[in-house]
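User: For my dataset I need records formatted as: sequence, then structure tokens, nothing else. Please produce one.
Assistant:
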Amino acid sequence: MFSLIKNLKEYRLLGWAILFAMSFQVVTVMEATAADIKIGFVDVQKAIVETKQFKKSQMKFRVELEKEKGIIEARKKKVESMLIEINKQANVLNPALKKRKEESFLKEKKDFERYVQDREEEFARREKAALDKISRKMLEVLKQLGKQKKLTMVLEKKAVFYSDSSLDLTSLATKTYNKLYP
């Protein structure tokens, strides 16, 4: 019985020795693997907003939006003037003419509201399409930079609490994008 206990103690000791050796190897492998991992960081939104292509599209968008605001304002004034006219003449108009003017006003108002909604949707759709196009190109630029710099991965900077500024690819991504897509 004493030899069985002695053997169990030796097996436990051997088990602990093996476990220690294995954990040492795991730590060594993890250190070697960690040394091989290279991570870059990028503020994708800032990189996109700083591109020349984005700035050009925003400038064009603003010009078109201002032009459209003028058209909308003119139509709005027309609808408002129709309402003022109906209110001024409400007591002197015969009921049939008053009804026709009110129907005409309601139709014009509904057309105006529909026009404004359609234009807002169109502008939003166009803005999203332009941003999607630039975003896809930026992702390709980031993949290219990752390969050139032999990075294991590139992460969104906003998802990281701290990173060394030398690993920030944001301005390089913008410069590379501007060179590739003038």
